[in-house]
Amino acid sequence: MSVNVSMTLNGDAVSAEVEDRTLLVSLLRDQLRLTGTHVGCDTSQCGACLVHVNGRAVKSCTMLAVQADGAEVKTIEGVASNGELHPMQAAFKEHHGLQCGFCTPGMIMSALDLVSINPDPSEGEVRGWLEGNLCRCTGYQNIVKSIQAGARAMREGGK
Amino acid sequence: MTDTGIGASVRRKEDYRFLTGNGRYLDDMNRAGQAHAYFIRSPHAHATFSIDTAAAAKMPGVVAVYTGADIAESGMGGLICGWTITGKNGEPHKAPAHPLLALDTVRHVGDTVGVVIADTYHQAKNAAEQIAVTYKELPAVTSVVEAVEENAPQVHGDAPGNICYDWEIGDKAATDAAFEGAHHVTKVDLVNNRVVPSAMEPRAALGEYDMGSDEITLYTTSQNPHVARLVISAFIQLAPEHKLRVVAPDIGGGFGSKIFIYLEECVTAWAARKLNRPVKWTAERSESFMTDCHGRDHVSHVELAMDKDGKFLGLRVSTLANMGAYLSTFATCVPTYLYATLLQGQYTTGAIYCEVKAVFTHSTPVDAVRGAGRPEATYVVERVVEEAAREMSIDPVQLRQRNFIAAADFPYQTQVALLYDSGNYAASMEQALDVADHQGFAKRREASAAAGKLRGIGFSSYIEACGIAPSAVVGSLGAGVGLYESAQVRFNPTGNVVVYTGSHAQGQGHETTFAQLVSDRLGVAIENVDVVHGDTAKIPFAMGTYGSRSLSVGGSAISKAMDKIIAKGKKSSTMETSPSRAPTSKWILPPWPSRLMCRTIIRVRSWSPASTRALFMIRQTSHSRSEPMCARWK
Prior knowledge:
By secondary structure, chain A is an alpha+beta fold.
């Protein structure tokens, strides 16, 4: 069965016809062509598909597109503004928080959710928070460092 | 050193696109009119089967269903192993057939019996559920120890006893003699468990066919697109090399698992031509676990002979190495030349002998993953050394220091083929002890114990042969290809630089590192250097990325290309500074390689002598015009 889904996506109103079983990540990637959100495991383990729905982090491979009807959805493509990196993105670049880049959009979206509820997370809090985001390249050390630096920059910049 | 040259702490050029969601991984790519492939995998480790595809073929959206019979009819060959190991008996390793799709027998969970191609992925998957595969289960063996027992289930009829090869290295007689005179022998039995590589990005392939030119383009998650093209042309015989282009875009981690040539990319490209329609496949994570090549899986018996002071006299190692059900592309070299040649470790062990039996089992194929052979060797050496320290009641640091190759003894010829060029292991150990505050450990342990906690400390010395080259050496050891690397460095007429390299990045940051090489040597800022990789239509024939070889071998190729540019530049510079050509110009007087402007003039001249003269005149006569141009070049 085909269903209409309307949402605010990265600030713009969008709508699409989807099969009722379509996952949010498929709508974003395959129909709306926002391929920055990745699929690493299709079982909610890895967090590469993480987006924000109504301001909170959600694994978009585990949510039906129809469940996002009427919601505000933000993906990695909506984080930088006018080509300028968000302080959290800039912190990942500065502290070498990424290598192959595949997990990175999910890491950034997860980090932003963390900072929204805990503006000054400790190292332990960051590590605990990242239990739902896997990285195979970095060993996490610099991801943790990046997120703490990003949080600091956001506090100082009032973001 | 320039501001962005070797050793400069620069930020990565590739990060912006990855941080903003603009990376271009394979599953991000789509082609107009593409169909989707779904592969049918065996749920059994060992079975014969028959397959009925009639119902599936009638399902909505289904374009085609192919089985092993269709592949056999196409005349395509099977997957190959590209490194010949010669056993103790003087014979090459056993290489049983590995058809792209199984014909009548499956040999591991995940072995592939067919493929459905449909308009959408869901249609293909739905149809696959309607394919009737009737399996007749057979006894299976997955452990190497059990696989070599008498009466073990056999994986292949043409590999009796499940033995792929029985290989040896070192001096057996000298090692046996060393053990005879030993004061003490330490023995350990070790299991180095199987690992699944699990790159974050699942493998994927997208085949496209151009009927007009009869060319296939295969986009695939590969660490070495030219090797893929070579194997798929020469052995699979899908298409001749000049009619097959292989492109590997951004790769979301490989760790070895994306070196190898897999059946899915061959079948996808073949189907695209057969259907004259793009065909795409992306693995689900469960498929990655079942079909990406695994690593390690060794079982070893290790013996270390020592004199009364703990001096290492001899090392004897017997290893069973699991190959899985079929030989992957480089599987055979991992437990031999990448493993046993490192058994000297950092020690002066007087005699070493190692024998390796490579064994087929009903499990996913095993090949190179993260270190490949080298970590297995270190595990063997360091575990037995640690155990020996305990048995001999010698401090583990002391025991190692007593046996380290002395700094004065390099170059050092090992007992297992390699020649070590340099090293200072005692100094490394001293530094490690200092950094770890080894002296303070006893106190820390007491403090932990007082808090009801346990604290331990362990040591491991590591040495690794990286680069997997040069070609003459690996060729003499059985490699089917040379393991060199290629590079081109090109100046554009306006002075920016493009590097074409055969090394392909899966997160290593080549676009930055290789730009730094150029920056260092040619004085061009890294933002004016682009690195092109991963496309057989753009780069010269090349060998790709594995074994930590990108900078050592790929970087050397870039360096040699720059040697040629500098030689050419010197030639141009000499021509320009000859009195008859340009006697008064301050811009062409500095010796090569000097200031940017001088190089730019020479570069432009190499493209067009007339324009060089024009540019030269502008520089001489009009600062207002030349300054903005200079700014761009900087």
